[in-house]
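HUMAN: Forgive my ignorance: could you write out one protein's sequence and backbone structure tokens?

ASSISTANT:
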Amino acid sequence: MELTGSDLDVVVALFFGCAAVITIFLAVASRWPGIFLALLVSLAEQHLGLVASYRLSGFEATVSDFLFGSLFVAGFVRLIHAVSFSSAQRLWLLFSALAMLAFALGASRYGVHAAGLYFRPIFYLLAGGFYALSFEWSEEDFFRGMRLWALAAGLLVGVALLRWFMPNEGFWNPSGEAVFGALLYQRERVLPAASSLLLSQVAIVGIFGWARGRAAGAERLLTVCCLAMVIFLFHRSVWVSTIVALAGVTLYARRDIGRLGGIAALLVVTLAAISLLAAGLGHDLIASPVASAVEEAVSDNSTIDWRIQGWRYLLQRALASGPVNVLFGSGYGSGYERLINNQVVIVSPHNAYLEMFLNAGVAGAATWILYHWRTFWNLLASVRQVAGDDVEAALALIVSLLIYNIPYSPGYEQGIMLGMLGGVALAARQRSTQPVLTLAPG
């Protein structure tokens, strides 16, 4: 007996339906299965380009659609049993409602297919944050979540090394060309900026743990590897976000400056040794690529200038579309078509804040910024009063995200991260405002 196309659609729909029910059940019971699956799928699809999809009733359904949809339902089930909502939860709920309004607006104007195509990444982001915010986040929970991030970082380090040293083998060949690893290193970034950000986040948390003496040998090794990868991947925006986050939080908190200086010196010595070893083998791993990266950033045809031209064009178009569109956005599906250097560009505007404004208007962008600012302010107000290591690390992470959102849009897994940081900020604020009990002299 052979299955027809419609029969196969029913079988696939039943399979994904059963998988979604199981995922919802597990995700409601515990945060770790849901976060692990979200991180795993995000790594496969967004970081490594391994997309599993099936055309169902005219729509291209992916594993991410079912997974993040399940997490959204699980977060909703958990939140409806909450006695009250925190400020972070209320802001994220408002942001979710405005994003869904923009999707509905886009679907009515441009069609469900076009609106869904542009709304997908934002839905994954808001579903992850919605789910993570349905839990409370203690210091132990935060570091346990970062251990999952560390596992993902270890995988990305391995993939980057494979793409450099075995560029013509397997799925890790990003160009499909037969090239030498040294040429690939000089010509291409073997991992996207989202991967470099994830590596940076693991390195930031590892550095603060190292400075406090809580990091084991394996964690210190992974921290050095992640920092080295952030440098060698040559995503300049991640360089800036990492340096500003680490330096700013360390100087403000006024703790462990000496130890962090020692860690920085160790990293410099390690990179110098690697560079000298490579130079002895005839390769220039640092000097020329760094000079090229800096020169490209200030040249007449730099990516910075390219982005600013696109931002100006899109912003002017949005402001001329009328007050309703300015307030609530044009809706998902309107696209990002713009004219740069007499060429039509249709890719993302490379700015999360502008992207939110274009699709969800001032209301959506303001809520998005307000959530980040509220999280940042709660952590900043608590960092000198609360002894927990999670507060300093979380503050550095939200600073790095605030900067990263200027030239890029966050990846799928960053919704989970934003939910974690919102929960840590709330817990830190509560700890910092609790009265300190002292015993009267006897």
